[in-house]
């Protein structure tokens, strides 16, 4: 809070202490106000055991306080030399309690009682540093009160070892918090050790919330009455503590009057009685020492929730990140206007704080917990926890997961392998290779091991995936967990991943890449979007686990957005929709809709003009992927009816609902219909690898785009001359355009990954999704005799998508004029629900 100088007052010829605000603190109005509150608090107190305030003022923009100069040492320095004798302990404790009693009577709660704030002088104790003090409201409408919050609303102030349990929950600190801290200080004076300890902040908090300190009698021959006094000061429930420091002071005076406490002779007693008493005490002490050696205090998981800030939600595809030291959690968020920001929640605070006011995803902590790297609209930025604007590290990169080391960043991708960027500069380079034999489509969510050479990552393949281990030193990878699409390595020897809707942990040696033991349940439910485990929402350090609980309602809604991403209206009711298709006249929508109980889909028609819904198919099979005929009279869809496992056939039905379905194809394969040529002659589908053209009137199917990689998500231009599609032939999914039918020309449209291309009604604009952004590309295409030319402009971002990208042919449709977009949003895409936190999470494994 300040710098303190020793100075001489020439008028009264005395030494004083001058406390001034440093420039970097004086610039912050909240800290200046705290400085003033300290002065007011101290000025309102007049007590021989409270440091005297002589004056307060400001000179040349510098605020200062002139205080009593004290010679001596702090109680913290004295305890550092060992436990205090009982008579000194009681003397200093009574003086400290008397000073606190004076403050409490004046309506001032100190809120930072600790040994460094207690000076031991020749004249006795002096209480220092009321910088966190808070005054209660006083009677009288004209009297100024000091009830304003000291920092960000809801923040916790104080020193962790001396903070009462309720302060960790962000509750209002009253005089009973000072009583708790006083008890912790008194315990430390008697034993020479802190009442509550932990190897880091998280374990310390768990100790304070759930454990009792070791008996004081183990370290010294403490009167039972003093032990009881301290235990009552340290009651977990404020209602179970002493309710006033005055009562504590009176009890201390009573204990001090006892002969043993004052060091007086207890009188004549038979020598044998003294011997027996000494032997009994020694035996009790030995038993206690053995007991505490053999049975160390048991840690238990501590669970609580972090609510979202007012008006803020966390998207389904956004993941909270716990700092390696377990002291903070950072999470991305979305506001109602679709803008976003990163929030920071220190575990020592009762409220989340705005960290970076930019919309993004994939927060990744540095190994020393000093900064966070994240993605914002195609760039990778880094922000220091200590403050300051974010620094741009890499431009032009969208990711699915980041891993950070001191000199490198690994970047996951939804369309290709992992990329590595080094601080020395240069373009990112691939460090993994997609395995064609496993039909891998992407490598995502990397995480470094502690050596910053090895790492884990998720390999996705046709909606499924597995967890692998790799290394920067070798191209070889090792399968760790099949059937999981995100995992977290914790340095205390665990691998965490979702399984069956729960979060489990297995013993994992990252040096030998060995998993051992059975999976142990950590949380009963962890959020994973429907049909997609990419975004299993959890993060962990050795001591702290943060996760979002699972959501059973996996439905969605159809939302109209304008070209800026603003929500305009919602179409129909909530349901489990998939793959919408807009009719040629723009008045109707065909969409897959799942039965909540069976999860099997049927095709439904939504009348966008009248607002009515009608069911088109009624088969018990899974019917999906509808497309309209150019005249709007018929619909072709995919279905697994009359098919063997992992197969789909194509069927045709009148959009009016009359008549029966007509089977168009019966070939083997997982056929998914994607489009209908504007001339009505051909239906386009993919067979999980190639794009195939099938005569609508019947006939032989013909592969039109195939070869290396997978090709899907195609869209034919309105004039029927071009076909846009997604292919991973380069190692990453990108958008390409070819002549239709293909005749030699091919143009790559995207350069940073892309999926789900869609044409504007006049064919002069092509849209696609790049990570979580909707991109727009101006198009110029002409057909001059046999010479066919295509020209595309530079892609630009229209808006960021606050949504979960499920396994879908498409998530959106666009109106003919390109002014509005109808997006399929999951019900869980934006959640107001809290982030669940478990401190000492590993303590509950196997129980």
Written account of the structure:
This protein is mainly beta and 847 residues long. It folds into three domains: 3-267, Transferase(Phosphotransferase), domain 1 (Orthogonal Bundle); 312-422 and 439-553 and 832-844, 7 Propeller (Methylamine Dehydrogenase, Chain H), CATH 2.130.10.10; 556-827, Neuraminidase, CATH 2.120.10. Helix content is 15%, strand content 38%. The protein has eleven helices and 59 strands. The strands form 15 sheets. The chain has a seven-stranded antiparallel sheet with strand order 38-37-36-35-34-57-56, with no helix packed on it. A hairpin with a 5-residue loop joins β51 and β52 (765-770). α4 packs antiparallel against α9 (245-256), α6 packs antiparallel against α8 (224-233) and α8 runs antiparallel to α9. The two termini are 45 Å apart.
Q: pLDDT below 50 for ≥5 consecutive residues: which ranges?
A: 136-158, 263-296, 783-787
CATH architecture of the largest domain: 6 Propeller
Main structural class? mainly beta
- What is the first-to-last residue Cα distance? 45 Å
| The CATH C-level class name of the largest domain | Mainly Beta
User: What share of the residues does DSSP label as strand, in percent?
Assistant: 35-45%
- Measured on Cα atoms, how large is the radius of gyration? 34 Å
The biggest beta sheet is recorded as:
7 strands, antiparallel
Q: Could you say what the CATH topology of the largest domain is called? A: Neuraminidase
Helix content: 10-25%
CATH superfamily of the largest domain: TolB, C-terminal domain
Number of domains: 3
Order of strands across the widest beta sheet?
38-37-36-35-34-57-56
Number of strands: 59
Q: Average pLDDT, to the nearest integer?
A: 82
């Amino acid at each position: 809070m300040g710098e303190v100088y020793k100075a001489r007052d020439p008028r009264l010829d005395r030494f004083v202490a001058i406390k001034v605000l440093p420039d970097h603190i004086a610039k912050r109005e909240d800290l200046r106000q705290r400085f003033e509150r300290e002065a007011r608090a101290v000025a309102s107190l007049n007590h021989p055991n409270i440091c005297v305030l002589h004056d307060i003022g400001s000179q040349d923009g510098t605020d200062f306080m002139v205080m009593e100069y004290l010679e001596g040492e702090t109680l913290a320095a004295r305890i550092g030399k060992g436990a205090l004798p009982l008579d000194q302990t009681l003397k200093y404790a009574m003086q400290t309690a008397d000073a606190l009693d004076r403050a409490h009577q004046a309506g001032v709660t100190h809120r930072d009682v600790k040994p460094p704030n207690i000076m031991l002088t020749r004249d006795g104790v002096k209480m220092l540093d009321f910088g966190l003090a808070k005054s209660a409201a006083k009677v009288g409408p004209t009297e100024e009160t000091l009830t304003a919050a000291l920092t960000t609303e809801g923040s916790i102030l104080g020193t962790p070892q001396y903070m009462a349990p309720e302060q960790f929950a962000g509750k209002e600190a009253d005089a009973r918090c000072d009583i708790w801290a006083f008890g912790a200080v008194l315990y430390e004076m008697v034993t020479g050790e802190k009442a509550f300890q932990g190897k880091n902040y998280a374990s310390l908090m768990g100790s304070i919330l759930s454990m009792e300190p070791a008996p004081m009698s183990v370290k010294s021959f403490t009167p039972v009455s003093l032990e009881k006094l301290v235990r009552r000061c340290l009651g977990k429930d404020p209602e179970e503590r002493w309710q006033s420091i005055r009562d504590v002071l009176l009890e201390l005076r009573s204990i001090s009057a006892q002969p043993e406490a004052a060091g007086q002779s207890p009188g004549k007693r038979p020598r044998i009685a003294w011997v027996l008493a000494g032997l009994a005490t020694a035996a009790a002490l030995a038993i206690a020492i053995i007991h505490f050696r053999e049975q160390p205090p048991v840690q238990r998981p501590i669970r609580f929730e972090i609510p979202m800030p007012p008006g803020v939600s966390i998207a389904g595809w956004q993941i909270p990140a716990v700092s390696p030291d377990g002291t903070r959690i950072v999470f991305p968020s979305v506001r109602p206007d679709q803008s976003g920001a990163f929030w920071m929640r220190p575990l020592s605070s009762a409220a989340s704080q705005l960290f970076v006011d930019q919309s993004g995803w994939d927060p990744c902590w540095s190994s020393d917990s000093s900064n966070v790297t994240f993605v914002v609209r195609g760039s990778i930025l880094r922000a220091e926890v200590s403050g300051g604007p974010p620094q741009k590290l890499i431009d032009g990169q969208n990711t699915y997961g980041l891993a950070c080391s001191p000199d490198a960043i690994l970047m996951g991708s939804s369309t290709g392998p992992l990329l590595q960027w080094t601080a020395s500069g240069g373009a990112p380079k691939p460090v993994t290779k997609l395995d064609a034999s496993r039909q891998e489509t992407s490598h995502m969510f990397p995480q470094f091991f502690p050596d910053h050479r090895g790492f884990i990552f998720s390999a996705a393949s046709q909606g499924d995936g597995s967890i692998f281990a790799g290394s920067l030193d070798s191209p070889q990878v090792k399968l760790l967990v099949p059937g999981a699409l995100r995992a977290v390595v914790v340095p205390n020897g665990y691998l965490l991943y979702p399984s069956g809707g729960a979060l489990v942990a297995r013993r994992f040696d990252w040096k030998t890449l060995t998993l051992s033991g059975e999976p142990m349940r950590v949380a009963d439910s962890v959020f994973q979007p429907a049909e997609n485990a990419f975004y299993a929402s959890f993060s962990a350090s050795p001591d702290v686990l943060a996760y979002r609980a699972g959501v059973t309602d996996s439905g969605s809604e159809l939302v109209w957005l304008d070209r800026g991403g603003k929500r305009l209206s919602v179409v129909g009711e909530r349901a489990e929709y998939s793959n919408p298709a807009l009719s040629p006249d723009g008045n109707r929508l065909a969409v897959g809709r799942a039965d909540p109980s069976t999860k099997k889909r049927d095709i439904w028609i939504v009348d966008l003009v009248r607002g009515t819904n009608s069911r088109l198919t009624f088969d018990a099979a899974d019917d999906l992927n509808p497309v309209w005929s150019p005249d709007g009279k018929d619909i072709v869809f995919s279905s697994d009816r009359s098919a063997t496992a992992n197969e789909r056939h194509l069927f045709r039905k009148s959009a009016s609902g009359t008549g029966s379905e007509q089977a168009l194809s019966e070939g083997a394969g997982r056929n998914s219909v994607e489009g209908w040529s504007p001339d009505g002659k051909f239906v386009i589908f993919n067979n999980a690898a190639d794009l195939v053209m099938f005569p609508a009137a019947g006939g032989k199917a013909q592969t039109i785009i195939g070869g290396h990689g997978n090709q899907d998500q195609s869209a034919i231009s309105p004039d029927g001359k071009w076909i846009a599609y997604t292919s991973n032939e380069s190692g990453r999914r990108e958008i390409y355009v070819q002549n239709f039918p293909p005749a030699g020309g091919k143009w790559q449209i995207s350069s940073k990954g892309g999926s789900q291309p869609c044409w504007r009604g006049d064919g002069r604009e092509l849209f696609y999704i790049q990570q979580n952004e909707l991109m727009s590309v101006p198009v110029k295409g002409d057909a001059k005799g046999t010479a066919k030319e295509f020209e595309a402009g530079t892609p630009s971002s229209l808006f960021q998508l606050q949504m979960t990208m499920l396994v879908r042919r498409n998530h959106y449709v666009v109106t003919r004029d390109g002014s509005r977009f109808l997006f399929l949003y999951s019900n869980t895409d934006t959640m107001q629900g809290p982030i669940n936190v478990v401190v000492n999470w590993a303590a509950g494994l196997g129980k």
